[in-house]
């Protein structure tokens, strides 16, 4: 019984920490699993630890979504951290752009392109066109668009047409 009580107390403490973090930083709860994050304040700026880039980054609404997606990919879907890159440079028509998240396969080929937006930003045709522009260079098999509240997952059929998927496949399904 003591172990069960400890687990319950730990869960309450974790949920309390998350509630305090959401309140202090003005971040909203997302339509993704809940995770605990390392945060700190430096020179008045709230920072969140990015486990992929191994550094603290400025906590914006879009970064809040990105960090949740990164944890979802690694902790829930089983993708190894070593196969994920954040804010990868993408060359398009002589201009450099930055994709939010790219997940690679074991051969270094892009498998999943993730485009994150702030929760208040609608996922629309322009979002899909932005991701498609990045994907002309990357050629990822799957595109995932999210604002943390609404998620769209697409793949491509043999003809190159977009096909709506129910979810991102796990690392072991991929």
Strand content: 25-35%
Succession of helices and strands: HEEEHEEEHEEE
Number of helices: 3
End-to-end separation:
40 Å
The CATH class designation is: Alpha Beta
Sheet with most strands: strand arrangement? 4-5-6-7-8-9
Average pLDDT number: 86
What's the architecture in CATH terms? Alpha-Beta Complex
Number of strands: 9
Number of separate structural domains? 1
Q: Uncertain spans, ≥5 residues at pLDDT below 50? A: 5-14
Secondary structure category: alpha+beta
Task: Please summarize the sheet with the most strands.
Answer: 6 strands, mixed
Which of globular, elongated, flat, extended, rod-shaped describes the shape?
A: globular
Helix content: 25-40%
Radius of gyration over all CA atoms, rounded:
17 Å
CATH topology: tt1808, chain A
Give the helix/strand layout.
Layout: H1 2-25, E1 39-42, E2 45-50, E3 55-58, H2 61-76, E4 84-92, E5 95-104, E6 110-116, H3 125-138, E7 142-146, E8 151-156, E9 162-165
Parallel strand pairs: 6-7
Antiparallel strand pairs: 1-2, 2-3, 4-5, 5-6, 7-8, 8-9
Sum this structure up briefly.
It is built from three helices and nine strands. The protein is an alpha+beta fold. About 6% of the residues have low confidence.
